């Protein structure tokens, strides 16, 4: 019987330990799965971005695709006429577009001027870039090739770059800069010069652009936000303020709330201070009464022989400039009356600044017996 019970107990223990092992294995598998997911999430697939121009702030979601940005752009393919043939679906006549593209090789900033094959007159533009990630590169330069018709000029110095574009009718210019996703503090400034303000304006082609737009991915396709042609923009990682501008939308409301709090507090501060002073003066009497009782207990055996209360050298409470509530008479036989009017015999200064030269110094507001004049403390 005992052997059977031991076997059952042993089996139960093994089952319990086995269940612990399975639970631990499950947690380990879940941890490994989570780690694999985190590892798979690269820097290009996370983060929020905005485009700012003046007081306008536009949240931007990168366009995404399963091909590198070079292939999506379609500049280097045969028969492309050195134009962005892979982005025709996003292009508009006489319009410059700006967007982010998240592909398998990383996050890119993409610029395209004009619409390919639309019969437009061409044009010119100059962009000055600042804040480019030093490890990034121009993986698409539209145009950059050996030939007499290549008039575009590309220069770069560290985090800064300048591009002068000019293009013929029905063609495009632009570029793609890849390597933005690895920069946690991404902030790129673009200073544009279109049409007559561009460096190559009128030298080769005379067409003009009329619009500049920033694109953002959405469930229904890219959304478009108009930008001014003559103002710089900033592309950065982050979010806009609550009202969609780059400023703080809550400043005025916070200021109003602060003013209200300030007005309310000023309206009550004086009364509150007066009340607190009054309370201190009112409670001074009760404090003195308590101390008198203690002094009386100590000096009952030898009335008038003490050196005054232990706190009899204080200067009294603040604002105590009153002349005292009452004067006590010369009834020396009434010891209780004397004690109410004074604390001990002697010349010590009382708690409430009563300065008496008589037998009993005024502890409570008022003068003691004799010629002393008491001031409430």
UniProtKB/TrEMBL annotation:
Compositional bias (Acidic residues): 265-276, 288-301
Entry superkingdom: Archaea
Biased composition (Polar residues): 239-249
Chain spans, region Disordered: 237-377
PROSITE patterns noted in UniProt: TAT (PS51318)
Basic residues composition bias: residue spans: 350-362
Annotated transmembrane regions: none
Biased composition (Basic and acidic residues): 255-264, 315-348
Biased composition (Gly residues): 363-377
Protein's name according to its UniProt entry: Cell surface glycoprotein related protein
Organism: Halobacterium bonnevillei
